Amino acid sequence: MNYFLLIWRNLWKNALQTIITSTIIGSSIGLLLLVILISNGVQKGLVRAVEPFDLIVGAKGSSFQVTLNTVFLQDKPVGNIDYDLLEKLKTNSNVQSAIPIGFGDNYRGYRIVGTEKSIFQHTVQQKGEPWLQFAEGRVFNEENFEAVLGSKVAKETGLKVGNEFASSHGVVEALEEGSSEHKENKFKVVGVLQSVGGPYDDAVIVPLSSIWRLHEHAHSTLVKEGAPPSAEHEHKETTVILVKPTGYAEAMSLYKEFQKNNEAQLIFPSQNVIQLLQILGEGEKILKVISYAVLIIVFAIIALSIYWSNLSKVRDRFILRALGAGRQALSLVAFGEGFLQIIFGIICGFILGHGIYYFLINFLEQKTAIAFPHEISSMEVIALLGILTIGSLISLVCSRLLYSKNIAEEI
Question: The ABC3 transporter permease C-terminal domain covers which part of the protein (predicted)?
Answer without folding.
Answer: 289-407
